[in-house]
Amino acid sequence: MVDKLTVELIRNAAVFASEEMGIVLRNTAYSPNIKDRLDHTCSVLTPRGELAAQAEHIPVHLGSMAIGVMNTLEYLDREGESLEPGDIVMVNDPYIAGTHLNDIMLLKPVYARGRLVAIVADKAHHVDVGGTVPGSLGGDVRELLQEGVVIPPTKIVIGGRLRGDVIKLIAENVRTPEYFRGDLKAQIAALNVGERRIAELAEKYGVDAVLEAWDEILTYTERYTRGRVRGLGRYGRFKAVDYIELDSELLPIRVTIELKEDGGVTVDFEGTHPQVDAPINAVYGVTVASATFALKSTIDPEMPVNHGFYRAVTIRAPEGSLVNPVKPAPVSGGNVETSQRIADTVFKALAEAFPERVPAASCGTMTNVMMGGYAGGRRWAFYETIACGSGARPQADGVDGVHTNMTNTLNTPVERVETDYPIMIIEYRLRPDSEGPGTYRGGLGVTRAFKLLEGKATVTIFSERCSTRPWGLSGGKPGEPSRHYLIKRSGERVELPCKTTIEISEGDIVYVNTPGGGGYGDPCKRPRHLIERDVEEGRISLERARKRYCF
Questions:
Q1: Nearest partner of 305 among 215, 222, 233, judged by Cα
Q2: How far apart, in whole angstroms, are the C-alpha atoms of residue 540 and residue 548?
Q3: Is 225 exposed, middle or buried, given 0-12, 13-18 or 19+ CB atoms closer than 10 A?
Q4: DSSP assigned state of 337
Q5: How many domains are contained in the chain?
Q6: Is 124 within the bounds of a domain?
Q7: pLDDT of residue 26
Q8: Poorest-confidence range of 51-65, 410-424, 474-488, 507-521?
Q9: What are the tens digits of pLDDT across the range 61-107?
Q10: pLDDT, tens digit, for every residue of 212-240?
Q11: Span 152-162, pLDDT tens digits
């Protein structure tokens, strides 16, 4: 039997291998979305596809990775395919990979002394995978095929040999083939590094020791999770509902969380709205990822998360619903927007159980902005998500201008935007008076304005919290909602809905204003010196301070 010290050494080495894979992927990627925004994730899994170790990358990727790998292994088994040394499989079908088409997942088996000891996997958001709009996300789509090229589990490397024909076929069906090829090869390079690191572990400690260590790591996490739940000492069922926006409708996402005396947890989304013919459905992998994030953040932010977590936690989502649709429902926005609302809803239920551990609602949207067109004789496509305000905490303000909850990306540097695209960023700042008032205020949202410098372009904004607002807790007030508009070259101003696709011309400016986070506690109890500081720094106007904070 492998000793505990060796298990811990292997666990930490696997986590480091995941982190190193992420560094390689970042450093060798081509697109700003991966190289600058770090929209990627890397993991190590057991030969059965169980998550064993992960880097601290994108929550919506991490929580869905094991589901995607397991689904892929089951698919290959049904097709009579096996994973041999040197093989790499590519997949982006959301109903297998677990997120949306832009997220291309690669996985590679790790063999040592002729035995399969692990699987390394990575997932990266490619800026465009075809479909009806540049950026491949949102738009007026009614089925999956309209969102881009669908890739079932396909071997792109066989025995170490790259299948250029497959890559060429896919590259011809996306708007930015140079980014696709470069980012895909970066993903391959990352897997090769991960494979070497895990193989080195097997060589150092022995294959049997590594395989046994995986089981011990998962068993420990299950035991740890149950112990932490029991230690919190609150049992029972806790319910919440929040809403996703579709045109003028508000579609409910409902959750019931059961905390059990044996330390087990059940999260059930029964009662959630049925799936729709619009790209706001979230596949089951996204729902698992979002629920996992909220649970971990509340139970113990520092706890390890691997497949042992799911031995203690059960997540149920009714088939045919917004949170577990049936193919071919479109899902591109479910990964980025519905994921945020799922997390919000789970947090809201947990706030009833643990009011001292749960913050007010963060902005609740990734605020996706996509642009594309022709300039300088070439086709271009741009994608990014915009920061916002995080929710106020029981003992602290929310954070201004930050990516929250299911995203962990950075912004695209202004210099990179203006170098690579016919776009000028003419305004980029915190959005004053967007916070949710409270004893502890919510974080401020962001204003970001894009001016088109050449030709024409298609712009898609896919965001949330226009009709609803990020909720406050314990007397705290909601944050301000999203607000977007277009200033035409002529000076005409056009208000834009949260989900829209428009055509713009040279000189037009698109303004994106993201929500602030909800407040925590009675605003009239906010310390005077904090209000004075916010007014002095321009975060809150004097008028708002007097009206909302009893100043």
A1: 222
A2: 10
A3: buried
A4: I
A5: 2
A6: yes
A7: 97
A8: 51-65
A9: 878 898 999 999 999 999 999 999 999 999 999 999 999 999 999 99
A10: 999 999 999 999 999 999 999 999 999 99
A11: 999 999 999 99
Q: What's the one-letter identity of residue 348?
A: K
Instruction: Indicate the residue type of 367.
Output: T
Match 């996997």 to its residue by tokens.
121
Which domain, by its residues, includes 99?
A: 4-220
Does residue 473 form part of some domain?
yes
How far, in Å, CA of 123 to CA of 100, rounded? 11
Distance of CA 506 to the CA centre of its chain: 32
Q: Is residue 348 part of a domain?
A: no
Residues facing residue 20 across a β-bridge: none
CA distance 118 to 514: 42
Is the pLDDT score of 376 beyond 90? no
Strand partners for 245: 250
Between the alpha carbon of residue 353 and those of residues 77, 133, 246, 269, 314, the distances in Å are: 43, 43, 30, 17, 18
User: Is there a contact between 92 and 170 (Cβ–Cβ < 8 Å)?
Assistant: no
Closest by CA to 296, choosing from 272, 312, 317, 282, is 312
Pairing of strands 509-513, 236-246: unpaired
Question: Please, where are the H alpha helices in 390-537?
Answer: 414-420, 528-536
Q: 470-498: per-residue pLDDT in tens?
A: 999 999 999 999 999 999 999 999 999 99
Tokens of 65: 């990775």
In a domain, 91, yes or no: yes
